[in-house]
Amino acid sequence: MAAHEEEEGGIAAGEAKAGVGAVTGSRGPQLGAPLVEYFLRLGDDRLILGHRMSEWTGHGPILEEDIATANIALDLIGQAAQLLKLAGETEGKGRDENALAYFRDGVQFRNCLLVELPKGDFGDTMLRQFLFDAHSVLLLDELTKCGHAGLAAIAAKAIKEDKYHLRHSSEWVVRLGDGTDESHARVQASLDRLWKYTGELFLTDEVDRAVEAAGIAIDMASIKARWDAIVDDVLARATLTRPADGPMQRGGRRGRHTEHIGHLLATMQSVARAHPGATW
After folding, report:
1. Is residue 25 left, alpha or beta, with left meaning phi > 0 and alpha meaning psi from -120 to 50?
2. N or C of the chain: less Cβ packing under 10 Å?
3. What pTM does this model have?
């Protein structure tokens, strides 16, 4: 499964700072300015995954993990806040990180489908976290060297947190995969279910091409190759079998989500929408 380009159209390469394009097809959601879209993708991934991790608070399998998952959720939501703030400032329409988090509908979110899936059991959560963490560490490392000063600064801080996340999730994958017969079977089933959502992490499209003008040029094929190496190493140590590559699920980057995003947002946004404009 090589990194590849999104087939659908939307934004012309010249619209790096302004402009709106519709996703191909009469029912497609609208895509905004490429820089805003790019920051939203980064921020929404972490916001939605952070919310999913927060669902383990008070429900962890052991006390230490109850604390660890809550801390990881806080890290991810903190990263999301900075990225969404950057998106709002770039957009220039007066929307801050809170407005972007709590007052957008599902079709306006740009997270990959992987992060919005239900948390499932602890094996599902750790396997999903590992697959995302391995990608995130590699991407953030590249973004620390990008030509956009604001994004590079956020990436430099976030990568320190994500390296811990990757160590934590990979250790759990090995522990569960190379544990009991039941834990092995369950985490293998998790891997088989989640694998078809990994391809979207490596899609590139006209948004990625357009933001090169702002100094954000990421070699996703290189990231994919290094991700493969990390994943293969951990799966081998976990005695898990890597699924065969097949058709991959996609659509989140363009606002086409699973049914799970609506349920998640109904919970996540409920207080803010019940008391719009409230200060605390």
Report:
1. left
2. C
3. 0.89
Tokens standing for 228?
Answer: 């493969």
Q: Could you give phi then psi for residue 146, rounded to 5 degrees?
A: -75, 170
| Tens digits of residue pLDDT in 213-255 | 899 999 999 999 999 999 999 999 999 999 999 999 999 999 9
- Backbone angles phi and psi of 31, in degrees to 5: -105, 140
pLDDT tens figures, 49-82: 999 999 999 998 888 888 999 999 999 999 999 9
Asked if residues 131 and 230 have their Cβ atoms less than 8 Å apart, the reply is no
- DSSP per-residue letters across 103-120: S--GGG----GGGGS---
* Cα–Cα distance for residue pair 174/237, rounded to 1 Å: 6
Each residue of 91-107: b (16+ CB within 10 Å) or e?
beeebebeebbeebebe
CB atoms within 10 A of CB 164: 15
**Count of H helices and E strands in the chain?**
10, 2
Distance CA 46, CA 115 (A): 8
CB 24 within 8 Å of CB 9: yes
CA-to-CA distance for 98 and 280, rounded, in angstroms?
13
Q: Which of 221, 264, 226, 231 is nearest to 5 (CA)?
A: 221
Count of Cβ atoms closer than 10 Å to residue 9 Cβ? 15
Determine the Cα–Cα distance for residues 187 and 38; give it in Å rounded to an integer.
Answer: 32
Axis crossing angle, helix 34-54 with helix 122-143, rounded to the nearest 10: 150
At 198, the amino acid letter reads T
Q: Is the dihedral of CA 51, 52, 53, 59 positive or negative?
A: positive
The answer to whether the CB of 106 falls within 8 A of the CB of 261 is: yes
